[in-house]
Amino acid sequence: METPITAADEELWAKASAGDLFSEEFLAERYVRLVRITARPYFLVGGDSEDLLQEGMIGLLSAIRQYDPERDTTFKTFAETCVRNRIYTAIKSALRSKHTPLNGYISFESPQFDESQTRTSGVLTDPEAIILAKERVSEVLEAAKSSLSAMESKVLQLYLDGCSYDEIAKILGKPEKSVDNAIQRIRRKLT
User: Fold this and answer.
1) Residue 136 covered by a domain
2) Can you list the alpha helix ranges (DSSP code H) found in 67-147?
């Protein structure tokens, strides 16, 4: 009987797939170095190198369990591909949430621009406070309009009147993308 130390990878895999846990463990130990070498050059956002090693080991275990000798590839090549793919997937997953703070925006629907919220929020119930708030909104809009181009002023007025991007584009005879760009510029200027 051949010992696992001298057994070829495919033979170890055959024993492991038959349920021999010792062969599966030995095969995993044989490829730990491959996992370390594959994970070394990469960085995981919000994690450390051990996290990447764990992801690589998960890839190695899935290679051991999913290897098919009929596919004309060696176990080593298949294992390396599985480990690399698992590490890439972990890195991509960590990077997905990285840009969420950049996706924030300034809403025109804040109480500063939406009078109905001011009335219904219960914050301003005093008639004098409501009049002062409306004057403040008018002042802010006037200050904003002084820094806006003529088109941006028209877009802002139509937007605050409740028109959709499509309706604004039709009224001004501009493409919808131009309206969107104008609103983005308005938001930056108001910030």
Assistant:
1) yes
2) 75-96, 115-120, 127-147
Q: pTM to 2 decimals?
A: 0.47
Choosing from 73, 99, 125, the residue where a domain stops is 99
Provide the domain limits for residue 168.
Answer: 115-190
Distance CA 38, CA 80 (A): 8
Number of domains into which the chain is organized: 2
Q: Is 163 helix (H, G, I), strand (E, B) or coil?
A: coil
Give CA–CA dist 144/84, Å, rounded: 52
Token pair of 164 as six digits: 């959709």
Out of 71, 99, 127, a domain closes at 99
Q: What is the CATH number of the domain that holds 58?
A: 1.10.1740.10
Per the model's pLDDT, the better-predicted residue between 39 and 6 turns out to be: 39
Between CA 129 and CA 118 the distance in angstroms is: 10
Which tokens belong to 165? 């991007």
Higher-confidence residue: 44 or 169? 169
Q: With DSSP H G I counted as helix, E B as strand and the rest as coil, what are the percentages for the chain, rounded to 5? A: 70, 0, 30
